[in-house]
Recover the amino acids of this structure.
């Protein structure tokens, strides 16, 4: 069984990737330094997710591999070069629907850096280092960030055993103790 929480609408890419067009394929890179992760606040001048906290993202350009695109986005958005990275770990590919239900293919990465200071481009107006456990304290974060953090091993998504709904308790079908 996968560690991906299907109740949040997340699937492993192998289940749906062929049907997702290239213009909905992105990378999401979590930057890590000494066990802390960087949370980036999107510039409010951007139309999409302005003012929200998230990781480094970018569309996979034609002809680029996900790893090449991750390195390019890290350089553009943080100033990190390959020489600044101790490791670039590829995580699982995810399929996450947007607000309208349209699926997106997300190639996840963890970029472990030796540099504490980052050089932001115009897409971000701030960044903060935090422990992975405290990432949820950033209340205004993009909705899919928790999925990426869980996929890259930076924090598990807590799945309650029972979920309240309309005054009744509905069993969580992901719980192995619940017969299906």
């Amino acid at each position: 069984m996968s560690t991906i929480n299907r109740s949040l609408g997340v699937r492993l890419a192998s289940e749906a990737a062929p049907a997702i067009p290239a213009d909905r394929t992105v990378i999401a890179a979590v930057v890590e330094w000494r066990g802390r992760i960087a949370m980036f606040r999107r510039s409010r001048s951007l139309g999409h997710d302005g003012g929200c906290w998230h990781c480094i993202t970018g569309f996979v350009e034609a002809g680029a591999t996900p790893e090449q695109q991750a390195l390019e986005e890290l350089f553009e958005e943080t100033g990190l070069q390959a020489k600044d990275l101790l490791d670039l770990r590829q995580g699982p590919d995810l399929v996450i629907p947007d607000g309208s239900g349209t699926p997106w293919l997300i190639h996840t990465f963890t970029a472990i850096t030796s540099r504490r200071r980052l050089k932001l481009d115009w897409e971000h107006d701030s960044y903060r280092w935090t422990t992975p456990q405290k990432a949820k304290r950033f209340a205004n974060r993009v909705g899919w960030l928790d999925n990426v953090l869980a996929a890259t091993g930076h924090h598990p998504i807590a799945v309650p055993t029972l979920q309240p709904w309309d005054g009744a308790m509905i069993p969580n079908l992901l719980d192995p103790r619940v017969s299906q």
Observations:
- The beta strands are 11-12, 25-33, 36-42, 53-54, 56-59, 85-97, 103-113, 124-130, 162-165, 168-171.
